[in-house]
Structure formats: C-alpha cells, structure tokens
Amino acid sequence: MRLLSVNLGRPRTVSYSDHPDGVTGIDKRPVDGPVRVAAPGSAGMGASGLAGDAVCHTVHHGGSDQAVYAVAREDLDVWERELGRPLGNGSFGENLTTSGIDVSGARIGERWRIGPRVVLEITSARIPCRTFQGHLGESGWVRRFTRRAAPGAYLRVIEGGEIRAGDAVEIVHRPDHDVTVALQFRAVTTERELLPRLLAAGEALHPEVLERARTYARTYAAKDMPDNGS
User: Fold this and answer.
1) pLDDT of res. 150
2) How many CB atoms lie within 10 A of CB 59?
3) Dist CA 43 CA 25 (whole Å)
4) Rounded to the nearest 5 degrees, what angle is found at the Cα of 206, between the Cα atoms of 187 and 182?
5) Of 29, 110, 136, 197, which is the most exposed, with the fewest CB atoms less than 10 Å away?
C-alpha cells in the first residue's frame, strides 16, 4: 500500500453551465517533493490540511474533519474504462491518490500512517456536487457517481508532518464496527434507513454526519413508541 501522488490545487475561476463565474480549487495536480500536513482548523475557518492547497469555499469544504481527501487509483482506473478517457492522479480533486488500498471500503475511524510520521483518520465520504460535475464535464455525473457508491474518503490529521509520492501507507488502527465509507455514503444519499447504523462509529464520524444519524434515529424511535394517549 503506497501513496502514488500528492495533489494540490490553486484557485481558478470557472464558468460551468450550472455553476457560472465561480472560483474553485478542485483542479488538483501532482507535485514533487514533500508536502506539509497539519490540522487546518474548524470548518468554515480552516481550509486544506495540505500546505499550498486551495479550498475556496470553506463553508462546505475543508476544515479539520475534511482536511485531506483520498481516492484509490483503482477506482480512477474503473472510471477511465467506463468514460473512455484518461483520468490522471488528482482528477477527482483528491489530495492523495493511493495504490493497494480499498479507500471506500475503509472504516470510519480507521487510521493510516503515511511515511514515517503522518497519521490520518477516516471521517466521512465525499459527496459529489455541481462543481465536481462541471470539472469532469460529464453529463449526469453526480447521479452516476452516487450510483456507484465508491466516493473516496475525507480524513482528519491526527499527527502532522511531511508526506510525498512513494510513501508507504500502513493501517495502524481499524475499528471493530462495520461502518465503512461506502456505507456512510449510501446512508446520506440513497438509503437513509441506514443512518442509525452509522452511530456505531461514534465520535470518529464527521460531526455533521453524526448529528444527522442521531436525529434520524431519535425521530424514528419516537414514531415507534406506543401511543398511550386517550
């Protein structure tokens, strides 16, 4: 298991048909040399966990619970064949392109050591948006990406340091629950009835996802209570 590339993006003005005149950092490209990784701060204030990487809309992107985004090269290869076009490392706006790791099959709370020092923890799945669709230039992309349910993973920084292409990736902690990135993705997109299962991952979940699961579980628990009124 290893890191194929570290990918950074610069702010870029775009004008997609359904997202006119926006600024985005989704166009990420592999870089040479080491890149510093650190927790960027709370959502809405912090940006990327990688030095030199742009996050332009911090309300919905970036922050310590979405500090780093990882995609498996194997998933990019599947999409290459389906789309009939090359997809270089960083094509999905990912910071890390990995090899030998089932990223979407990783468990929430799973921890990876990358290189000698950096430790990252899985928090949640990537949810596709209009910017992603515009960047890929594929009609119906959000729907197609959602249907496959192999979204890649966001991670928080547990121990900072430097990483570079070629670094080994080691799973140093794997929780004993069964809440994978793919399961969490399905629960918040197409199968809401799965939301209560996410609670097994506890505080390792992205806080917004955890609260959503708790709210759903409380709502349906209340509906299932017997009505003892007159």
Assistant:
1) 97
2) 8
3) 17
4) 35
5) 29
